[in-house]
Queue: 4 jobs
Job 1
Amino acid sequence: MSTQMSERLENVYQEIIKRNPGEVEFHQAVREVLESLGPVLVKYPELAEQKIIERIAEPERQIIFRVPWQDDKGEIHINRGFRVEFNSSLGPYKGGLRFHPSVYLGIIKFLGFEQIFKNALTGLPIGGAKGGSDFDPKGKSDNEIMRFCQSFMTELYRHLGEYTDVPAGDIGVGGREIGYMFGQYKRITNRYESGVLTGKGLHYGGSLVRTEATGYGAVYFVSEMLRTKKQSFGGKTCIVSGSGNVAIYTIEKIHELGGKVIACSDSNGVIIDKKGIDLDFVKQIKEVERRRIKAYTEKHSDAIYQPGGKIWDIPCDVAMPCATQNELNGKDAEKLVKNGCVAVGEGANMPTTPEGIRVFLESGILYGPGKATNAGGVATSALEMQQNASRDSWTFEYTEKRLAKIMSNIHELCFETAEEFGTPGNYVNGANIAGFMNVGQAMLSMGLI
Ligand code: GLU
């Protein structure tokens, strides 16, 4: 990736920093996209004349609200809720909700900005948005989670609708939370509006494969990248950071395709199991018991737990960051490349720092950026919306086939766009340019809105 931007784009970027002070993750996400767009503006000057980049970088609407709730002891807590509705030129606002103590406006805006391009790459009719709260679900009882979700939805509901804005999950928001929020939405509005949330349970309008989709999709994308080098996951040693929903189903699909995942992690430490990660046990620890990954050694005494360890120091063929933003820096990237890693595919959103991205691109290894690689989650959300709109539900096999096809289409689009703009093999440019072109053309057609 060139770190140079044309003077015009540099000015646009400086203006965005000035208008959005302190939102460092948002600045980072914007810069990464802008660094790809120079040649696009040369080829399509009307996109510059119509100030499409400036318009995309300014959310259509930003909602910030108070979320009061009571814990089991009766104590009152106040959290902050967010929904940033970034762009609706391709469809209703779409994107997940994140509940994590690190959440502030800058995090939601980086995620919402990325979501615009990711959703555009799927080819499905979904705009871009993101939301969440600085609420920390860790250690909370089920009743506390329910009361928080109900309070959160009591404000958010007025901004949602199947044709307006359709949230889903992200870090800290899974099937349980979506269920509580759907229940509260239904109660307040007196409408059984299935298409207003995705990631729902299978008993009330959810889609098969949605739970697995982000991880499975990421592995499909990496398989496609490997295929361009006549390689596959078969026999490859892999490491997957994280141990939440994305990591779990990334590991599952890698194992299905004949690779071996030897390490995963959480924010406290790293588990290394040279025999291959026992995924059933990880699911038991994380999905059923909701405990920390350290518990893995209770059953596997020969596995190693490294508190505070760095997963990227472990030699591997394929690395898949599936935890959170900026979890892999320049030094980590250098280590991976030096240890012979041939492919990196991002299941998380923006897990690699700009220095890390530079190392990957300069090394020439296969590098799949999150907005392309992890698009399978939101794509399957769009498939859930399709099923809801037609009051239908599809089989697992059919839905997974649709997901696999979407991922291979995204891969092809990114691959060909990178070639067309003179940087073959650069999936960062491919994803940024192809996503931007889809949204930009739609915006041009709709006039100044
Ligand atoms: N949070 C996921 C993402 O980052 C999924 C969003 C959705 O399904 O709407 O794309």
Job 2
Amino acid sequence: MRRKLVVGNWKMYGRLGRNKALLEEVLKGIKDLNNAEYGVCVPYPYLAQAQSMLQGTKLAWGAQNLSQHEEGAFTGAVAPGMLVDFGCRYVIIGHSERRALFHESNEIASAKFDAAIKAGMTPIFCVGETLAEREGGVTEQVVARQLEVVLNHAGVEAMAKTVIAYEPVWAIGTGKTASPDQAQAVHAFIRQQVAQLDGQTAQGLCILYGGSVKANNSPELFAMPDIDGGLIGGASLVAEDFVAICRAAHMAAQ
Ligand code: 13P
């Protein structure tokens, strides 16, 4: 059976004091949840705090972005090796907020993906369609294209070290979750795209669902055969809610 994974994406939220309280509560809450894996992707300035609080615990940590360059005159950017210095296991790449608000193309996302793999981190590579694309019936084409750029460039072997997150843009921060069947259909499609190149890698590929995952809808989502956990925005900032979602993954993995 594939592992289940729940990762919190804190986005641009946090303060030292609040983070400490949140992480302490989460660590307490997941102490006995041994069947699944858990992580948080925090803003860059809090990586040191995450590292010092989470080292040796069940909660891994990572970043929400990285530069595709190793180093150089790139004011404001953060190199892959810097994330490695702070013990990051995960780095989110191609999130729809990066694509839409920071104009990150499929090609830039693909270059960042390569940089993360090269640095030895696990990319959490996000794909997903907008509402207009879903209503236009092109969800599969959009997701296939987003995946294809990475597959063509890094090769299917890289998928063995990757987590994919399917995040329909219309479900992010809107309270509108994809139904378990809607999400399952796209997850199965993603797995099938990878299976065309390598069946075994596709079977092992961890595909998370993201978009308004909450404590109450997570059990149903995580029960679907191709949904291997969640990438959690808003609910990851509330310890009780995040722990409840982690528990749903733990239960689904039993
Ligand atoms: P919400 O859970 O707040 O909808 O955010 C989802 C997301 O974008 C996770 O990366």
Job 3
Amino acid sequence: MLSRSRQAIALISDHGDPAAEIGKEEAGGQNVYVRRAGEALAALGWQVDMFTRKVNPNDAAIVQHSPHCRTIRLVAGPEQFIPRDALFEYMPQFVEAFQAFQAKQGAYYPLVHTHYWLSAWIGLQLRELNNVQLIHTYHSLGAVKYLSVASPSNAEIRLSVEKQILEQADCVVATSPQEQEHLRTLVSQTGCVKVIPCGTDVDNFQVVTQAEARTKLGLNLNEQIVFYVGRFDPRKGIETLVRACALSKARNQGKLRLVIAGGSSPGQADGLERARIKQIVQAEGLIEQTLFVGRLGHDQLPLYYAAADVCVVPSHYEPFGLVAIEAMACGTPVVASNVGGLQFTVVPEETGLLAPPQDAEAFSIAIDRILADQKWASLLGSQAAARVREQFSWCGVAAQLSELYRCLLARSIMHDLPRRSPWPSGSVKAHLSRSTKVAPAKMLGRA
Ligand code: UDP
């Protein structure tokens, strides 16, 4: 039920279902971010409805996370997993389903916060249809991504939507100063940008002693544990980590243990990447040293972070990188690629070390420096935990988001912006097909 005593807001995360199992099939940081932001905002007094696309007919249409925070799954296209690169054509159906949901509930969301460029497109339509205050977070920026990977067929549409949303949204939330810089240099000089970082649950990700964590997990107390957790995706650079560990193995007198965590499904893209990584592990002679522990929930993850001597985030590109701050919150130093948000969260020589992406030799040297000096490693770990508590706790981050929402809503009331009916007199379909700049079929050249 929608609460009448609270201001309702909508978070839209087209493909990142906040209620999904994290760690497989593209479910990662965006899902975690939206879910945690939603729950924390509800705790601050908002009624938070998080909209996503339904990917399984057996999934519940509504998942209630807390009394004032829920995930609403809208039917937009086939109820099955579709990779995000193939989702754009279903976005008009998402807009229609959103409008129908509002109409059915007799609800109106005056503020919409969208996540990822596909949701940005939805937000731009809702701005026209419903006159909402529109806030956007990119999570991943095509303009940066396509500098290092081949552009998919829909790259042009994505870049165009990324520019439109920056220029037209009431505010874009960048999660690091590095992202803000990329927006200004690669996307547009126009539009309002505010930096509000991603957060983490510092009550869950806490410092536990390494010995206690290893004992609970049944891990050897005398080994040197290098830990990776995340999706199996070539962009995550797990290959670099494996090759770095192979270089480090010789220098660590047989004590090195590589633990790789993350879910995967056979036959899917993440299953194929896991199989590829396993082959590299074999080719590098690391089979005995490597443990694949599968998907881990946030209940188990703190123990794994605490058990590790070092957590490695070897991504080719990372807009923010939640894993780095989770590990840091648990008092574990991080070796990360010198890219994107990782340059913001990991302070070199203070909370961990940075290395150039895809440079196995540089990663190996950085990992070895930390493994070789336990005293220094524990100083890095305690400084890391302090940094997360000061800058990246969910509480603080949600308070900043809440303040931004409050200001935007107050401004819209003060300026007495004309409120349209939340659903226009003509049908939503009519609007979507009228809107030349937005009809996906046309943009894809299929009309
Ligand atoms: N994660 C998890 N279990 C796993 C793998 C990943 O809970 O087995 C979580 C991880 O703890 C983090 C998120 O997935 O909260 C990954 O976010 P990040 O920003 O590091 O990467 P993304 O997936 O967004 O590229």
Job 4
Amino acid sequence: MEKVDILGVKFDNVTMDEAIMEVLRLLKNNETDMVVTPNPEIVQLCVDDPAVMDVINSASLTVADGIGVIYAARMLGTPLKEKVPGFDLASNLLRYIETGEYRLFLLGAAPGVAEKAAENIKAKYPRIDICGTNDGYFSDEERIVNKINECEADICFVCLGAPKQEIFIKRHIKDTCAKVMIGLGGSMDVFAGNVKRAPAWMTRMGLEWLYRLLSNPKRMGRMMKIPVFLSNVKKEQKKRSLEKVG
Ligand code: UDP
């Protein structure tokens, strides 16, 4: 698949439909594959920490969560086809895995949230096989991996926030039977109905980040990575245009 490099993070240039098809293909593989959904904050985290960059770039599929990545790709002259938000990718996948062919494990968020998310998902997709759930506040990682394996999960939604979820997936990629593990940040809270998504008009205007900030001002500190990300993209844009001229 064609890759687009944004400050060192290698994104797959895919539409939402292509991303879904790719996950379904990975589910048929025998190995465990990691799917990641970086937003500008996570890209900047990778720039700041090469170890996190390596983990993110070891994923089998990397999609652009958020309009900021789409703008950056355009500014760098290597546009990405479409934004593929993690929550939307996961929601769309549910329709395809409802056949009962695949078992889904929900991992992450505060105690009780994954169970509530499972209830809501079941209400919408009654035939879905949710084989297990666990909150995201655990210290014994082996216990979690065993739990995923005992219920023979095929696909695991891992919602521990970035980069904790990607590091967890990478560390256990060889010991889990799940075919696909997707890092999905705060999506469990959205599936559970505890956090609302931005209204459609805000999403259309590329203001989802502002909605998230207004509904949770504690995000302010983390969001300071966004202007740093933008300034780095500007620098990279300049560098690339100088290279072209030279
Ligand atoms: N979380 C978790 N375990 C941890 C830290 C965080 O399960 O040790 C959960 C947290 O409860 C929340 C999610 O990870 O549900 C992170 O959400 P956030 O909106 O910060 O993630 P983002 O989508 O921005 O990466």
